[in-house]
Amino acid sequence: MRAPERPPLAPPWALPALLLALAVRGTAAGAPTYRWRDRDTREWLECSQCPPGTFVQRPCGRDSPTACSACPQRHYTQFWNYLERCRYCNVICGEREEEAQPCTATHNRACRCRTGHFAHAGFCLEHAPCPPGTGVVAPGTPSQNTQCQPCPPGTFSASSSSSERCQPHRNCTALGLALNVPGSSSHDALCTSCRGFPLSRPEPGGPETEECERALINFVAFQDIPFRKLLRLQQVGDR
């Protein structure tokens, strides 16, 4: 016996068309409804709901539709509803918040953290600065704290900041100067025009004396030298 033929499958383009037809049909059906029992006749009726921004002033009757009224000032309804009164806009922005959306007939007031703060566990916290030696990868947003990372080789960050990225070290050679102190992750490279430093000392009163003295101070300041050894170096320099 021959098996009955199966109906052909719908082509792929038919599904969007079917969904579109259902959507049109749903729109034509009108507003959503709710069941209401007439107080006089005790009859159960299918009443239309009221659209956002309105409320039910009078339920429908056997021969009359639902009567809707607009929400008064500082009140709202966000969805289709059958409420007897609109909801009060009860959201109040805190000290570190600002109004993101005002109270309207269709929405409650919405708040967000002020600039420089982000929301965490129901509080607005200040964006944390990245400490020296680290730079900002992503600035803080109203929903996220500042994202930091250690400065890669050749870059530095000398101060705490919630906005600055790591900066490249100064190129002394390109500036026609000599490198005095190499840069690190937390300070820039220091250059000097004092030639031969630190292997030679300029003549007292010479044109490079002041610059070389400054170079020596900068050089010593960035060395990890015990205090007693610094005093000894000072005594040698004063001779």
TrEMBL record:
InterPro entries: TNFR/NGFR_Cys_rich_reg, TNFRSF_decoy_receptor. Pfam families: TNFR_c6. TNFR-Cys repeats lie at residues 70-111, 150-191. Residues 1-29 form the signal peptide. Keywords: Apoptosis, Disulfide bond, Glycoprotein, Receptor, Repeat, Secreted, Signal. Residues 70-111, 150-191 form the TNFR-Cys domain. Its main location: secreted. GO terms for cellular component: extracellular region. It is found in: Secreted. It comes from the Eukaryota. One of its GO terms (biological process) is apoptotic process. The keyword Lipid biosynthesis does not apply. Disulfide bonds join C71-C86, C93-C111, C151-C166. This is Tumor necrosis factor receptor superfamily member 6B. The gene is TNFRSF6B.
